[in-house]
Amino acid sequence: MRIVRLANFVTPTSGGLRTSLQHLGEGYTAAGHEPVLVIPGVRAGDEMTDAGRVITLPGLAVPGTGGYRLLIGTGRVAALLARLRPDRLEVSDRTTLRWTGAWARRHGVPSLMVSHESLAGLLDVWRLPPKRAAAIADRLNGRTAAAFDTVVATTEWAAAEFRRIGATNLRRVPLGVDLDAYHPSRRSPALRRTLAGDDELLLVTVSRLSPEKRPDRTLDALAALRAAGVRATLAVAGDGPLLGALRERADGLPVRFLGFLRDRREVATLLATADVVIAPGPVETFGLAALEALASGTPAVVDAASALPEVVGAAGVAVTGADFAAGVREVLSRPAAQCRAAARARAELFGWSDSAAGFLAAHGLAEGGVVLPGQRRPAAALGDGRPVDGAMGPAVA
């Protein structure tokens, strides 16, 4: 089955969404399907990867977002979809790409939208009055739920805003973690000495440095801990529009800004070497970085208002009121070996193969591309292995 996936807000330096698209594509391929990912970029591209075919369309840069782009031109995207002839459509953008749900319905293609963010939460971050934010979120989420055959949420927290409007086409499928790439064995005493020395607590945050992620909270936690006499250093891995402001705010504090780490082995080593990972985002719908920390054997301190308590469970500490310093102290009060073992054990409950299987089930597909009972194969998209017109040629006419 050809599963065409559309996604916005994906860049070479983006984190969770890009990771999810990669691993789910690999899972779809392993199950015998043909994933095709369409994303925006600086220039057109068309390549085969381990996660399937990736088509890049020149996209519109979104000011102030640190490089995010949008797929624009409904006619252009619709023409590409017609050439690709999908058996299934999977969309990772509930707003600017909502129209593709109607396209899929007109062409007899079952469609699925993945809720990678909380609209209500983002509106709250943008400081809209709560009642107005809830009303806007409900209206837009209602349109999204009506546009697609299936809506997938990765946590119950993410599903709540759709349950509130009575959506009946909602499925919950958790994401996963690469348990081989992220492992406690990657802990590096040499890196620890480089970043913090042998006698200081090493705190780490891995995040896009953008307003909704609230990376400033990690600096507040570090300042509070040092004021309380805790010798601690913070390493920040990530890039984004707030980098300059954070550097200014960190003046006088032992903070190492590492930038975006392109090699996931570097990220894995950093997470395994940390004593505590802080995941400060208040509107995270899953939190892959926190789960990767657990897989690395490192406990995570997360915001209790987000979906992360569902993910980290007792292997982490959820704080209210953004008191991440208190959360770090709570972790330090526990036996370190037990904390690290519990973190790894929790992560082992989440695997990408299980996640891919869950997404395929949400698509109405079983392993190997079998159509499940009640799911018809669209006549316009046979999925019989015939090449798409212009396959591996230019993606844009």
TrEMBL record:
Residues covered by the Glycosyltransferase subfamily 4-like N-terminal domain: 15-176
Report the domain of life of the source organism. Bacteria
An example Pfam family from this entry, by short name, is Glycos_transf_1
Which residue numbers delimit the Glycosyl transferase family domain?
A: 196-345
Could you tell me which SUPFAM superfamilies the record lists for this protein? UDP-Glycosyltransferase/glycogen phosphorylase (SSF53756)
UniProt keyword list: Glycosyltransferase, Transferase
Among PANTHER family, the record links this protein to: SULFOQUINOVOSYL TRANSFERASE SQD2
What protein name does the entry list? Glycosyltransferase family 1 protein
